[in-house]
Design a protein that fits this description.
Layout: E1 5-10, H1 14-23, E2 29-35, H2 39-47, E3 51-53, H3 56-62, E4 67-70, H4 77-87, E5 91-93, H5 101-111, E6 118-120, H6 128-139
Parallel strand pairs: 1-2, 1-4, 2-3, 4-5, 5-6
Helix pairs in contact: 4-5
Length: 157
């Protein structure tokens, strides 16, 4: 068996902790470091035995990483993605990847100068609700769908 993929996490708040729980016990991936500037959150992460750094740059310099996961507030997805792209490490980026056109242009420009492979998260597409809706649509039991209106009530906002 090969060694687990060593992942760095940027953001140890609610979404970051969600990712930590999801990866817990994985033989393929292990979170080895977290960049978390807020001391209260950092202290909780240290209690879990994680190496915690005050900045992403400190984590890049101090931890041996195979990839980085960004689990911060949406406002910070683009700025941190640009920093990860500058390292060339593979990137797992939460959505939205950008919150406005300026961020989108910045992210696009960074993507043209990096070798980083990037994956954007959308796990809700495999949620029970989404899969049930897809089954109903695929069977045709409700006929042809002409229009859809949706609200995405996720529990963490």
């Amino acid at each position: 068996m090969t060694a687990p993929f060593r992942l760095g996490l940027i953001g140890g708040g609610r979404m970051g902790r969600t990712h930590l729980r999801a990866l817990e016990g994985s033989a393929q991936v292990t979170v080895v470091a977290v960049a978390e500037p807020f001391e209260a959150a950092a202290a909780q992460l240290r209690e879990q035995g994680l190496a915690v750094y005050p900045t992403a740059e400190a984590m890049f310099g101090g931890a041996q990483l195979d990839g980085v996961l960004i689990g911060t507030n949406c406002l910070y997805h683009t700025p941190y993605a640009v920093k990860v792209m500058a390292t060339g490490l593979p990137l797992f980026l939460e959505k939205p990847v950008a919150i406005d056109e300026e961020q989108l242009a910045t992210l696009h420009a960074a993507s043209l100068t990096t070798t980083s492979k990037t994956v954007v998260s959308f796990p809700l597409r495999v949620s029970k609700l989404c899969m049930t809706a897809k089954e109903i649509l695929d069977t045709g039991v409700i006929g042809t769908v002409e229009n859809i209106q949706m609200t995405n009530n996720v529990p963490f906002y």
